[in-house]
């Protein structure tokens, strides 16, 4: 008897019925960022002249806006707080502290994106059973940001946070899919408040240009309650992880106990960018192939690819490997030129901005890849 019940429950069709995108008000061009970095490098070289001349340390070379655009495809990024980032004496955002009784910064941007997602799915707070906040960092461990958002929106049920770096969004969607398919929830709100600029090392030439802030949200629900024009059946989800130290941040609560410098470079985002590029691209291509094969589909059957937005050259390589040709921007939209790498939100921004033109029956895939390593995908079909 219980087996029959489970089978019935698992057969519930899960639908991606809405999405929301909140974009910060401030933007920083490559030129502005590179100019600030170069001022910092000049200051550093001047102040360490003796050690540099003695060969004890290396001088910091200049960054270049041309390099950034060519190596990454990024032209600008949005940030939650611009103040401080370009200040050679600070080189990090200057975000005001909020009291325990105020809405936290990250919850605020999560609420902004969630409100838009609920509107696009024609849902209200009372329809939602579960809130998942999934992103690369939460600004504190507890109480969960998701529970704060749940309270701010007036949602019943329960809420929790998830951290899976660049794949946090797709892995959060995966949880939503499973809960709805299993019948333990009917409507799940997945929010990705990617407030990453506080973890960027703006003094590091290799990575100072990579990231931007944003918040995205998606609504998943059972097919029997859908009331949205632009809804997609989720055909399945797929996830894989493989341990790698090539993208890492050592920031965490242990810093308090070890007396380490909380501002040390290893506490911030750092990576072996070349290795990441070489190792993650084939993993992502294989992952997508396997996901499609499980549905008797081939890459050319897809109308749209909402790929992770870390580096334009990665996306070009992955889609070329799969299609045997370059994907055009209509097939695989690029948003990182405007938004930069927004950790897990990149593929969701691409989805949010590029799905309303799709026709009933069209297939699309959302796919993230990044730190962990972690890869996550959702295969969807326009209803
Ligand atoms: N300006 C000018 N020259 C530069 C700069 C610069 N800013 N940086 C490097 N160079 C120089 C180097 O010194 C080198 O010179 P030389 O050849 O003389 O040694 C040359 O340019 C080439 O350097 P690289 O080999 O490092 O350059 P690449 O072509 O590999 O490009 C990239 C660097 C853009 C970083 C590229 O490797 C890349 O994008 N790789 C993939 C990385 C990636 O996808 N990472 C994902 C990380 S995001 C993630 O997983 C989420 C984590 C959680 C979020 C964290 C938020 C803070």
Automatic annotation (TrEMBL):
Location of the Beta-ketoacyl-[acyl-carrier-protein] synthase III C-terminal domain: 293-381
Spans through the membrane: none
Keyword hit for Heme: no
InterPro entries assigned to the protein according to its UniProt record, in alphabetical order: ACP_syn_III_C, ACP_syn_III_N, Thiolase-like
Superkingdom of origin organism: Bacteria
Entry keyword Metal-binding: no
GO biological process: fatty acid biosynthetic process; secondary metabolite biosynthetic process
GO molecular function terms noted in the UniProt entry: 3-oxoacyl-[acyl-carrier-protein] synthase activity
Residue span, Beta-ketoacyl-[acyl-carrier-protein] synthase III N-terminal domain: 160-227
Keyword vocabulary terms for this entry: Acyltransferase, Transferase
Protein name per Swiss-Prot or TrEMBL: Beta-ketoacyl-ACP synthase III
Lineage, uppermost ranks: Bacteria, Pseudomonadati, Pseudomonadota, Gammaproteobacteria, Alteromonadales
């Amino acid at each position: 008897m219980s087996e029959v019940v489970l089978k019935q429950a698992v057969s519930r069709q899960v639908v991606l019925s809405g999405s929301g995108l909140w974009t910060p008000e401030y933007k920083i061009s490559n030129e502005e960022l590179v100019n600030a970095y170069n001022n910092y490098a000049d200051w550093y070289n001047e102040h360490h002249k003796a050690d540099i001349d003695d060969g004890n340390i290396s001088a910091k070379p200049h960054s270049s806006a041309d390099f950034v655009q060519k190596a990454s495809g990024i032209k600008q990024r949005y940030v939650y707080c611009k103040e401080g980032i370009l200040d050679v004496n600070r080189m990090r955002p200057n975000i005001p502290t909020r009291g325990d009784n105020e809405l936290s910064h990250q919850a605020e941007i999560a609420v902004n994106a969630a409100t838009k997602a609920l509107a696009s799915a024609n849902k209200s707070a009372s329809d939602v059973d579960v809130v998942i906040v999934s992103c690369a960092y939460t600004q504190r461990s507890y109480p969960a940001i998701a529970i704060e958002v749940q309270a701010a929106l007036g949602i019943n049920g329960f809420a929790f946070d998830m951290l899976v770096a660049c794949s946090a969004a797709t892995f959060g969607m995966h949880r939503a899919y499973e809960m709805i398919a299993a019948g333990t929830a009917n409507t799940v709100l997945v929010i990705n408040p990617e407030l990453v600029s506080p973890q960027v090392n703006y003094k590091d030439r290799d990575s100072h240009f990579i990231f931007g802030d944003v918040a995205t949200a998606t609504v998943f629900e059972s097919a029997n309650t859908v009331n949205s024009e632009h809804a997609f059946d989720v055909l399945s989800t797929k996830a894989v992880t493989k341990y790698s130290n090539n993208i890492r941040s050592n920031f965490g609560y242990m810093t308090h106990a070890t007396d380490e410098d909380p501002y040390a470079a290893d506490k911030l985002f750092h990576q072996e960018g070349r290795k990441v590029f070489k190792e993650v691209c084939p993993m992502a291509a294989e992952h997508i192939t396997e996901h499609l094969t499980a549905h008797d589909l081939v890459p050319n059957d897809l109308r749209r690819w909402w790929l992770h937005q870390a580096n334009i050259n990665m996306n070009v390589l992955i889609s070329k490997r799969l299609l045997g040709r370059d994907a055009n921007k209509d097939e695989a939209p690029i948003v990182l030129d405007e938004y930069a790498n927004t950790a897990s939100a990149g593929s969701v921004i691409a989805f949010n901005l590029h799905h309303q033109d799709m026709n009933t029956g069209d297939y699309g895939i959302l796919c993230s890849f990044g730190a962990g390593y972690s890869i996550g995908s959702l295969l969807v079909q326009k209803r």
